[in-house]
Amino acid sequence: MTKKRFAIWAFIPFLAVVGSIPRCTEPTDMAPRISREDLKARLDDPSLVILDVQTHVHWKESAVKIKGAIRENPVDSVIWSKRYPKGKTIALY
Which of 10, 36, 53, 85 is packed most tightly, with the most Cβ within 10 A? Predict the structure, then answer.
């Protein structure tokens, strides 16, 4: 068997595995969404925590930031996600 033929046959099981992984194709498959208006109405709600998870470059260049939002590094989500109570509504932007 030639190397090229072997590479093709070895790649087929990989495609089968990758093809079986579920994907989020619609926003409804992900976390619930909140409209800008609903978020604005809840800004003073103590049960709401707003996290700004923009990358550092985008955050630094952003002219608009939500007052009271807590800046978190999106790369470190496993670490900082433990800081916030489970009973609160967490809004990420």
Answer: 53
- pTM confidence score: 0.62
The DSSP 8-state label assigned to residue 87 in this structure reads: T
DSSP labels, 3-62: HHHHHHHHHHHHHHHHHTS----SGGGSS----HHHHHHTTT-TTEEEEE---HHHHHH-
Q: Is 9 exposed, middle or buried (0-12, 13-18, 19+ CB in 10 A)?
A: exposed
Cα–Cα distance between 19 and 17 in angstroms, integer? 5
> What pLDDT digit, counting tens, does each position of 53-84 carry?
988 888 888 888 888 899 999 888 889 888 98
Tokens 């807590």 belong to: 70
Looking at residue 80, what DSSP letter applies? H
